[in-house]
Amino acid sequence: MLLKPRTAGTGDAVSLTAGHAALAVGIPLVATSAGVVLAVVAVRAMG
Amino acid sequence: MAARFSNPVGRIAGAAASWLLFSFVLTGLLWASTVVIGIGGSCASGGPYVNATPCPSGVLTFAPLGVVGTLAAVGISVVVAQDFAAPLYAWFWPLLFTGLGVVFLLGALSGVGIVSNLLVAVVALAMGLGPLVLGLRAGGLRTLLVGSRTVRGERSTARMRAPCC
Fold first, then answer.
1. ipTM of the predicted structure?
2. Residue B161: which pLDDT band, with cuts at 50, 70 and 90?
3. Can you give the pTM of this predicted structure?
4. Which of B15, B19, B160 sits opposite A21 (nearest CB)?
5. Exposure b/e, B88-112, CB count within 10 A at least 16 = b
């Protein structure tokens, strides 16, 4: 019987690529910077 | 409800929205704390009496917003981001209390209510850094930085590899 290589599915552990790691760290980092800038602008606007 | 967001777009949007909201409300809360410490440690607004120290309008907005907004951000992280990217539910407590600890420490150093501010600062820093150390020991730095699932929802191993190999 011919066995097909099994493809990874949900629940399987996969190795983390550098691209994914950059995305996973970069998104919170950019969002956090934007949040801080927005808050400083809001605080200054309120006086 | 979480199943509705079980796609890469949902996870990316959830991670971005939760961190954006959290950093916004935390910055406001820390600013409000700094202002209140600067005017003597307490203020009040409203009521039938004349308040000795009225609260600045920004404090009235950002102090309650900090509490409600933090909980909302953690909810977005858990339900929408679903373990993708730096997990806010593991970070919000250390960031909140370490931030407050630093604010109270700066208050003590500026000479306002030195003993009480120092006492609160030590307690807040311990409350912030303790869980961070426990989280690092339990999940590891990599999980705290990139989460435990990929953008497609697959469980990621701790070992990282280059995209080429």
1. 0.83
2. low
3. 0.85
4. B160
5. bebbbbbbbbbbbbbbbbbbbeeeb
